[in-house]
Structures are given as structure tokens and as C-alpha cells.
Design brief:
Layout lengths: L12 E7 L2 H17 L4 E6 L2 H5 L16 H6 L1 H18 L3 E5 L2 H14 L5 E4 L10 H6 L5 E4 L4 H8 L3 E4 L8 H6 L2 H8 L7 E5 L4 H20 L5 E5 L5 H8 L7 E3 L2 H10 L2 E5 L3 H8 L3 E5 L6 H7 L7 H6 L6 E3 L5 H8 L7 H10 L2 H5 L7 H16 L1
Parallel strand pairs: 1-2, 1-3, 3-4, 4-5, 5-6, 7-8, 7-10, 8-9, 10-11, 11-12
Length: 400
């Protein structure tokens, strides 16, 4: 019998991951899963996250809900706790002795962490997963990021060019997570949903998406309801479907109770995609949902309002001609948008009515919609989470 010499396993890569809200938690979880596969499990994680990252093995150093705060007023109210959590996270990152730090979105929380980590351990590479909107406002942030960010992983295909133009860090397009749901979107059965809801095959459907946050629903549900009233007064006969996140279903039901057309409220992701596929047109709050509508091929009109006292300031700071992500991906203002004082029932209904029947406006949007999936897909059909994991490992290899 001969003795065999076993080869010790390679040391685990140590990755510190910081997410500040639930969308970041979802991105972080997929990134962690992809890294575990690529590294054959030889990886250890620490940092801040929520339920989805916990399922991949992360033990968050504090509840992510402590920092998952949206809007300038709410951030101000919670600022002392957020600042405390920033310093706690920096200390935890240093103690973990990471090979790389990955911050995910939420720049008000994650970028102060990255700056302090860079100052204390300059050799540790820092990757920023999700670019701040430097192409839309406060473009000077891009060049400042070079001091503490080694690589930006972009969700939108035009962002690498924007960082290059603005003097930002190196930026790689890794794809939007919605790409991984493209088959689910395309295979959603809009006809089955319509039959279940009692909508006839011939009846036009207006999909109404007032947002996924209470503040958005508060600001948009009344003007969206007024828009529906104008369309009905103009003689249109149509059904209305409103997707809702489950915890806001009751709020949406109350806000839409007096609408001129009683809406069908659905609250599952499968039903949302089915409703997009069945819809004749959509009235949507500006945001990621415009990319979902783009991938589903749904003509749309987009609206948004923010607090009145900061609206004029934001308008002056904007450096793009559109805030609609679907337009930005296309490089063309194919989908009309109505922001702040332009967000009126008269404007919205006038833009929607031509989309509810066949005609030049509807045909133009459908032609534009067909271009969006190819604009967003990665070469070779690579999944965004795999592309992001490869980019993180490439940054590491460059530092070794």
C-alpha cells in the first residue's frame, strides 16, 4: 500500500459585498451564486444584504432595512443611523481582509463605504455593480469615482460610453437582470390571463403601472385615474389591468376604487408579464418597468412626478433629453414622457388614445419596441450574473 499525498484545496477567495436596497440584494444573490459556481465553492462572503443574499450564505452584519431608505427627506430623517452603519460596514470590511469589495447600487450608502475602504486599504480593488446615473445628472461624479472605484458593472448598454466620455472608471456592460427573464416574459400567456379576468379577446386593454413605492402611487394614481376618465369620455371601450406588489395591493385597490373603469388588480410576477403581453398599451411610471414593457413589446406612455419643491431643481440638473430607460437604451425618444407639470390627464390621454387602436403612432412604437431586446442582450446569450461574475474575477486577476 502506497501513501498518497493529498493536494490541499485552494484558499477561498474572500469577497465583501454591500447592498443597500432590495433590488441590490437580488443582484448580489445572483452574483454570489455565479461566483460560487465559477470558483467551485472556494469563496467566502461577508457584508450587508437581505433575504436573497442570505440564501446564498451571507450573514449580514446588520439588517439591510436599516439603510434601505428612499427619497431625500427620508434619508435626512435617518441620516444618523445611516452614517453609523457606513462606519460599521467599513470596519467590518477591513476586519474581513477581503480580496475584493463589491458595492451594489444605493450610492448614497455604498460610495461613502468605498471611499473609506480605499483610504484604509488602497490595494483592495473595489467594484461598483450598477452605475450611478452620471449620464443624467451630476456628471462630475464620474471622474471623482476613479479615486475609489476600479471597475463599474453597467446594467444599461450606453453606460460604458458615458463613463469613457465623462472620465469615469473603466466600465463594462454586463447586462440588465431582466434579460434573464426574457423567456418568461415572451412565454407569458396574456390570453389565459384575460379569460380568467373576464376580458374578451376583442376588448382593448390598458395596463396601468403607477409605481412600486407608496410615494409614487400617492403622486400618480389620481392623475392616472383622471386619464382613464378622459379616455372613456372620448368613447373608448377598454379594460384596465393594474399590476401590484402584494404588500401594496390594498393601497392600490383603495386608490383606484373611484376610477371610471374598474381595474383588474393582479399581484404576481407571472400575471404582470402576462398582462404586458395582452395589453394594447401601457400608462407607466418612469423606471425599470419601461424596460420590462420594452422587452414585452408593449406600446407605452410614461409619466412621473416628484416632490414639488425639488422638481425644478432636478429639472435644471438633468443632462439628458429623456428619463425613460427604454428611450435611453434605443437612443431615440420613441416613447412619450410627461414629467412634473406636463403630467396631466389631458396630455396623457392625448398620447395614449392613438396607441389604443391601429394607426401610425402605434405602428411606430411597435417598430421601436422590436429593437430593444437586441440592444440589451449580451453576445453569445451570456447571462448578466455570469458576465458580472467574470468581470469581478477579471478585476481580481489584474490586481494579482
Amino acid at each position: 500500500m502506497t501513501d498518497t499525498i493529498s493536494t490541499p484545496p485552494p484558499p477561498a477567495l474572500r469577497i465583501f459585498v454591500v447592498a443597500g436596497e432590495h433590488s441590490g440584494d437580488a443582484l448580489g444573490a445572483k452574483l454570489m451564486a455565479a461566483l460560487k459556481i465559477k470558483l467551485d465553492g472556494a469563496v467566502a462572503f461577508a457584508g450587508v444584504g437581505a433575504e436573497e443574499m442570505a440564501q446564498q450564505g451571507l450573514v449580514s452584519i446588520f439588517p439591510m432595512s436599516d439603510v434601505a431608505v428612499m427619497g431625500p427627506l427620508r434619508i435626512l430623517r435617518h441620516l444618523p443611523k445611516i452614517v453609523s452603519r457606513v462606519y460599521q460596514t467599513v470596519d467590518a470590511a477591513i476586519a474581513f481582509k477581503p480580496d475584493v469589495v463589491v458595492i451594489i447600487d444605493s450610492p448614497e450608502f455604498t460610495h461613502p463605504i468605498a471611499k473609506r475602504v480605499r483610504k484604509r486599504v488602497p490595494a483592495v480593488p473595489v467594484v461598483d455593480y450598477v452605475s450611478p446615473s452620471v449620464w443624467a445628472w451630476r456628471s462630475g461624479r464620474a471622474s471623482k469615482m476613479r479615486a475609489y472605484i476600479d471597475e463599474v458593472l453597467a446594467l444599461l448598454p450606453f453606460e460604458p460610453e458615458a463613463h469613457a466620455r465623462l472620465g469615469g472608471p473603466h466600465c463594462t456592460y454586463v447586462g440588465h437582470p431582466l434579460i434573464e427573464q426574457l423567456d418568461e416574459i415572451n412565454n407569458a400567456d396574456g390570453g389565459a390571463l384575460a379569460r380568467r379576468l373576464g376580458i374578451t379577446a376583442a376588448q382593448p386593454v390598458l395596463l396601468v403601472l403607477p409605481g412600486s413605492r407608496r410615494s409614487e402611487i400617492d403622486r400618480l394614481s389620481d392623475v392616472f385615474g383622471e386619464t382613464i376618465g378622459v379616455l372613456k369620455q372620448n368613447g373608448l371601450d377598454f379594460a384596465v389591468v393594474v399590476p401590484a406588489v402584494p404588500h401594496l395591493r390594498d393601497m392600490i385597490a383603495a386608490k383606484t376604487a373611484a376610477w371610471a373603469v374598474k381595474p383588474h388588480i393582479v399581484d404576481s410576477g407571472t400575471d404582470k408579464f402576462a398582462a404586458m403581453r395582452r395589453a394594447t398599451a401601457a400608462l407607466a411610471a418612469s423606471g425599470t418597468v419601461t424596460l420590462e414593457l420594452g422587452l414585452a413589446g408593449t406600446p407605452m406612455v410614461v409619466a412621473y412626478t416628484i416632490e414639488k419643491f425639488i422638481g425644478p431643481l432636478v429639472r435644471r440638473m438633468l443632462q439628458v433629453k429623456t428619463v425613460v430607460l427604454a428611450n435611453l437604451v434605443l437612443g431615440d425618444n420613441a416613447f412619450p414622457e410627461f414629467i412634473q407639470q406636463d403630467c396631466t390627464a389631458e396630455n396623457l390621454s392625448a398620447a395614449l388614445q392613438p396607441l389604443m387602436t391601429d394607426g401610425p403612432a402605434r405602428a411606430a412604437q411597435i417598430a421601436a419596441l422590436k429593437r430593444i431586446p437586441d440592444k440589451m442582450k449580451l453576445p453569445g446569450g451570456v447571462a448578466p450574473s455570469d458576465a458580472a461574475a467574470d468581470a469581478v474575477l477579471k478585476v481580481l486577476s489584474a490586481k494579482i
